[in-house]
Design brief:
The chain has 501 residues and is of the alpha+beta class. It contains 15 helices and 21 strands. A five-stranded antiparallel β-sheet has the order 4-3-7-6-5. It is rod-shaped.
Amino acid sequence: MSVTHVKAGMPVRREGAEGIGSPRRIDDELRKQNDRFSAAVENMSHGLCMFDANERMIICNGNYVSIFCLDAEIVRPGIRFFDILQHSVEIGVASQSAEELYAIRKPYIDQAKPSTYEETLSDGRIIDISHRPLVSGGWVSIYEDITEQRRAERELKEQHRRFDAALANMSQGLLMYDANGKLIVRNERFLELYKVMPADFPLGMSHNHVIEKLLRLGIYAGIDIDNEIKNTVASLQAGKMRSIQRHLADGRTLSIVQRPMGGGGWVATFDDITERRRAEERMTHLALHDTLTNLPNRSMFRDRLDQALGEAANLAILSLDLDRFKAVNDTWGHPVGDWLLKCVAERLQRCLRNETDVVARFGGDEFVIIQFNPKGAADTEKLAERIVDMIGKPFRDKSRDMHVGISLGIALFPDDGTDADTLLKNADMALYRAKSEGRNVYRFFEPGMDAMVRARRALETDLEAALPRREFELDFQPIMNIASGEIVGAEALMRWHSPAR
């Protein structure tokens, strides 16, 4: 329906009750806007509550009621802010009195600018409260339960604390790089190991620059930077751990282990293994050297001999045994005997002319020498004569002189054998012959010695077996005085009734 009337000679059309500006349409639009606003407020993830200038509630959403466990029948538009606080105290949500709560919140509410604070409820939950003043007076508050967030933050903070404590107390140095090769973590132990300052290796420094800086500081020497970076990248791209050792300019040795991290980047740990390496070297040395003379022992000698047989064109093996050494031990005691053995070892080393020659102690007063590439038997004979002459000189201990001699057996490679066992056996047989001929004697191996030694050893074996078999018979032959015809004594004769001889 529309009405038209004339005003000042001009027709005017007036919309009726159903027109655009009609109260009904305005009410509908307002209702729709209110519905939208209510839906938006109700569907907020946070709690919301709005108060007017008289501190009376205008609106709140379900999350606000839920956060504070309020009674929805009591918390209605128009209720005073203080009464809500009183209600929260009554139901046991608040941990303080309503007056105390009001005194805490009032300063924030009265501020002419947004404010935020946290409040801990009686059940331990932590609520973040944000106040925003309204132009018309009053305020709107947003409430968020941040209990889990704070718990996660505390856990993260604790993890950081533990991580920092672990870094600070690590016996190893540590550097951590991101996927771009930038330094993101560095502990104090790294600085201590390399004796550098924090400013020398700031966070954000590239791996390339770290290596370059260590070179410039004179800590590393002789490292190809490009090759080092190439090897690191290749290992990380393959997802493999890389372990290397670096010898520093001050003589220390560091073990460096690089481990790739998930998502890119890597962790490098640094460990000072100087003492461990020295201990390992000492253990290896002890395993391969005689503890008394510090000469190579039997195990190391065999390794050197096996190696020499594959490299040298010819060799001489000299088996040595001291003469009268037992008398020194029996007369002066084992400490003096040990001293004498060390002196003999020193003299034998001085007799060698080639740096590759090796003298070893097999045990007791038994020594063995490898002469590398002698110029014929004459060259080895000269070495044997030097040894006999050197060991034959007196050994002076305090105020006394001790005299010992030495016997030598010599086997030549390849004439007297092509393997270690044969050469050592033949040198021993030549030594056996030398000792049977007297003192300070050397003898070269001869093929006939083998048969003689076998015969001698067979005889010794048969003699040892004859005693328990009662194959010996003792006879006494009388000794007479021819002039008087009297028996003045008897000669004891041992007869061996051997079934095989």
